[in-house]
Amino acid sequence: MPPIVVLGASGKTGRRVVERLRALDVPVRLGSRSARPPFDWNAPHTWAPALEGASAAYVSYFPDLAAPGAPEAVGALAGVAIEAGVERLVLLSGRGEEEAQRSEDALMRSGAAWTVVRSSWFNQNFSEAHFREPLLAGELALPAGDVGEPFVDADDIADVAVAALTEEGHAGEVYEVTGPRLLTFADAVEEIGRAAGRALAYTRIGIDDFANGLARAGVPDDEAGLLRYLFTEVLDGRNARVTDGVQRALGRPPRDFSEFARAAAAGGAWPRPVQPPDAP
Ligand SMILES: NC(=O)c1ccc[n+]([C@@H]2O[C@H](COP(=O)([O-])OP(=O)(O)OC[C@H]3O[C@@H](n4cnc5c(N)ncnc54)[C@H](OP(=O)(O)O)[C@@H]3O)[C@@H](O)[C@H]2O)c1
């Protein structure tokens, strides 16, 4: 049986796609800079060896589909995949991002059987990525106020991706996937604090203070520019509605944020700080 290639195999969604495919006894080839053969978005000569002879591929771009050059890279990768015999491509995309939609267009024009999983912000950004460290320290400060975001669970994204990779009936579908309810960042932090049994604060800051903080923390300019774009453009209210992509793809509702927060807290995502022993 030819393998399915999972790009971003060690990332938040890719790791979960790999676990699910293995549980189904589907052969998997990891798409990672440390895999053999390696896959590196910045080294196009690695693409064909990583894709050769696979039946399908999960395409998670890095760093972000809003980054300059992403549509060109996704389009070129789709061409290489078809040359390598890959028949089915499932792209992880971002909701409400004009740039991400240009990558989707490149995929759709490629001639492959495609499915797009167009996602809202992940729950796991709070437990496995950028927002975790500040939460561990007790306060998350971001340039986002009253706007609601329907955070979606990476487990749901992986379930949708695996359905599209392994079942018939998903080709040509754009699944816009969100969680079941809108939360502000303050709401999300409050729910995490309750689940973790900790006093956690959310503070809204200005975009310039945010940018200065990123610079002080040594975040590279291109990454800081992306974050600035995401907080100003993508969080301007355009995405403040839930959609039915998970239900449509899987026939079940998406996981609620409170269930995510409880499970991640129980798994040790936000442990209480260790109290220093009393001085003698
Ligand atoms: N986070 C969100 O809320 C969100 C929402 C919507 C859409 N998205 C989309 O999801 C995608 C993934 O974003 P993410 O932030 O969640 O990251 P992620 O899936 O957690 O990905 C991190 C992985 O990317 C891999 N990687 C890094 N540089 C690479 C390179 N040059 N070539 C190949 N692989 C590389 C690394 O794997 P190795 O070290 O193993 O190579 C790393 O494990 C982006 O395209 C983004 O637009 C994210």
Structural class: alpha/beta
Strand content: 5-15%
Q: Write the element-wise H/E pattern from the N-terminal end onward.
A: EHEHEHEHEHEHEHEHHHH
How many alpha or pi helices?
Answer: 11
Q: Summarize the biggest pleated sheet.
A: 6 strands, parallel
Radius of gyration: 19 Å
Bound molecules: NADP nicotinamide-adenine-dinucleotide phosphate
Provide the fold topology.
Elements: E1 4-7, H1 14-23, E2 28-31, H2 47-51, E3 56-59, H3 70-83, E4 88-94, H4 98-108, E5 113-119, H5 132-137, E6 139-142, H6 154-166, E7 174-177, H7 185-196, E8 201-204, H8 207-216, H9 221-234, H10 245-250, H11 257-266
Parallel strand pairs: 1-2, 1-3, 3-4, 4-5, 5-7, 6-8
The chain binds NADP nicotinamide-adenine-dinucleotide phosphate.
Characterization of this structure:
By secondary structure, this protein is of the alpha/beta class. Helix content is 40%, strand content 14%. α4 links the parallel β4 and β5. It starts with a strand and ends in a 14-residue tail after the last helix. The mean pLDDT is 95. NADP nicotinamide-adenine-dinucleotide phosphate binds next to β4. The site of NADP nicotinamide-adenine-dinucleotide phosphate (NAP) has 24 residues, from β4.
